Amino acid sequence: QAQLVESGGGLVQAGDSLRLSCLDARRTFSGSPLAWFRQAPGKEERELVGFITYDGVKTVYADDVKGRFTISRDRAKNTVDLQMTNLKPEDTAVYYCAGDLYGNGGLDTRARTWGQGTQVTVSS
């Protein structure tokens, strides 16, 4: 059974940076893309933040994080990181690492396997 474990969330101020990490504890997704999603307070759906291919060569980002967030992958450590800069209050959400992706390879990407999530709160 796949196990994705996120870490690195917390409370920061607007304009700050924060780095989240996701460990693929059982190496389930070593040959697959992995994604970050987020679920804002009061919203039912998790929205795609971005994803990275298995080899780390290609990344895709949602429009509202493009240029501020960067996804990277360390295949030796089985981790996928989300570096967030210039954080805004509207970035406040629970952030989820996800695998077993499906969709058309773009911003309609969805996932079947999820981590437990990590809270990011950005104060103004």
Describe the 3D structure:
- The chain has 124 residues and is mainly beta.
- The protein contains no helices and eleven strands.
- Strands 2, 4, 5, 6, 9, 10 and 11 form a seven-stranded mixed β-sheet that branches. Strands 1-3-8-7 form a four-stranded antiparallel β-sheet, with no helix packed on it.
- A hairpin with a 4-residue loop joins β7 (69-74) and β8.
- The termini are far apart.
The geometry reads as globular
The residue-averaged pLDDT reads 96
Low-confidence stretches: none
**SS-derived structural category:** mainly beta
Write the layout of secondary structure elements.
Elements: E1 4-7, E2 10-13, E3 18-24, E4 34-39, E5 47-52, E6 59-61, E7 69-74, E8 79-84, E9 93-102, E10 110-114, E11 118-123
Parallel strand pairs: 2-11
Antiparallel strand pairs: 1-3, 3-8, 4-5, 4-9, 5-6, 7-8, 9-10, 9-11
Question: Could you give a short description of this structure?
Answer:
By secondary structure, the chain is mainly beta.
Keywords:
globular; 4-stranded antiparallel beta sheet; mainly beta; 7-stranded mixed beta sheet; 124 residues
